[in-house]
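This section describes the prediction task in plain terms. A model, or a person checking by hand, is given the sequence of a single protein chain and must write out its three-dimensional structure as a string of tokens. No templates, partner chains or ligands are provided. The sample shown here is typical of the held-out split.
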Amino acid sequence: MVVALLGVSGCTDASKEKSPDKAMNPEPCKKLLGEDGMAWLKSHTTQEQQKMNTSSTTSSARSLFRKQVLAWKPGDRNNVQLFTDSEMCHAGDPIGTPEKDLVITYGPSTLPFDAKHGPDSEKASVALGPDTKLVYRKSRYAGQRWYNVYVRCGVPGASAPQLNSVTLEGRMVDTLTDDPNYRPHLQHLLHSAKVMADGFKCTNNPQIPTTLPSSIKD
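The expected answer:
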């Protein structure tokens, strides 16, 4: 992803040209979204749009995340970092409309955990305890809806400042479901954050709640 909007990490293009579904692998998406997330996706899409795949495994995404974190130095904080994300879930008709996708990516964040994402009437930032934060746009940007989760995820062998300075960032970009509500997207993204943090074996055992606070309104 390009550094913009919500202070995001590496480069992922949710509207890239699609190729035929030669080897669909829906299991990673199903695990990330969970039963409730899959039910939500199916209720907002056609059968063709429910085809799912991923370009990364949890193991490869964890290795890439750790490699980039360990290469980071505390003095880099004042410089813009360009990290690479891992695409963990891609839902949509692989030979249908390119702009109709739901994509979930994870990777190192370019901004520290305590970064301010505003004030901006178009953005909302919600802290969910000491280790987790949600940031999302309140309206479409370039025809897309963006939802981000930030998790303090410790890496073995990393310097102490890493925990706050280079966090794990998840992003959901949805041009598929046409669901205008924030809560379903954030709830299912939050579920995926727990799955990813467990798979990444964060050394600090981050606290990730299972439900959204009532303060988040649709």
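For orientation: The chain is about 25% helix and 20% strand.
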